[in-house]
Design a protein that fits this description.
Oligomer: single chain
Largest sheet: 2 strands, antiparallel
Number of helices: 7
Helix content: 55-70%
Order of helices and strands: HHHHHHHEE
Strand content: 5-15%
Radius of gyration: 44 Å
Length: 242
């Protein structure tokens, strides 16, 4: 009886060992295949999630609207001041332009009413001259005395005669205020242009810095780790990080 029990146990042990051995070989083959696949996949660079930005686009955006180039470059903290400055300049341009035109209409109506002046088609020199002389006769007399015969006006085409010297001075005040406002309009236009140029340069530098940092952050990492299936072997993985 004892001999029979011993024989049964021996046979069961042999079958179990063969099963375990067979299973281990099968698992080893699958693991080896998996490792090969993983190693091949690790050699393929990961998809780049960040792309370099275009300096040309940054310049175009800033020329269209200052600050948008900085926003495109990823830093609107500084760009917002260019946008605000642009809004202020446009407000100044509109305000000065409206005021200048309003004052110009005023002095034209005033000159026609108190000086008999027709300002249609007259140049800036004429507008200034009628503010300095009470009448065209006074003006032409001065030009003859100074021997500036080429500057003498035709009395019919360029006629004026102020009702009083006070009215002439009042006209000059309105004319000067209009000219001053138009000069401010030109200043506002210049400020709009300068603001765009500075913003474009700043945005281009930001894009350049962004691309430089992006390149510096991109690198290849090599990891060497023991093979989990074959302890005596080594596993090399390549990883591209951003």
């Amino acid at each position: 009886m004892k001999k029979t029990l011993l024989a049964v146990l021996l046979i069961a042990s042999v079958i179990s060992a063969q099963t375990i051995q067979t299973k281990s070989v099968y698992e080893l083959k699958n693991d080896a295949k998996q490792i090969k696949i993983e190693n091949i996949a690790s050699l393929i660079p990961a998809e780049q999630t960040s792309e370099k930005k275009s300096g040309f686009l940054a310049i175009v955006y800033s020329l269209l609207l200052p600050g948008m180039g900085e926003l495109y470059a990823g830093n609107y903290d500084k760009g917002k001041y260019f946008t605000i400055a642009d809004g202020v300049c446009w407000g100044a341009y509109a305000g000065f332009n409206i005021f200048a035109r309003w004052r110009r209409n005023d002095y034209k109506a005033f000159a026609a009413a108190y000086g008999g002046v027709d300002l249609a088609g007259k140049d800036a020199g004429y507008l200034s001259n009628i503010s300095e002389f009470t009448s065209i006769e006074d003006y032409n007399r001065r030009q003859r005395l100074d021997r500036n015969f080429g500057d003498i006006y035709d009395t019919e085409k360029y006629y004026w005669n102020w009702a009083s010297d006070g009215k002439r001075a009042e006209y000059r005040t309105m004319w000067e205020s209009s000219e001053y406002a138009f000069n401010n309009v030109r200043f506002a236009v210049g400020a709009l242009i300068v603001n765009r140029i500075i913003s474009a340069i700043d945005a281009a530098l930001m894009v350049r810095s962004y691309n430089k940092n992006l390149s510096a952050q991109t690198s290849w990492n090599v990891n060497v780790t023991p093979n989990q299936v074959y302890p005596s072997g080594l596993e090399i993985n390549f990883l591209k990080s951003f």
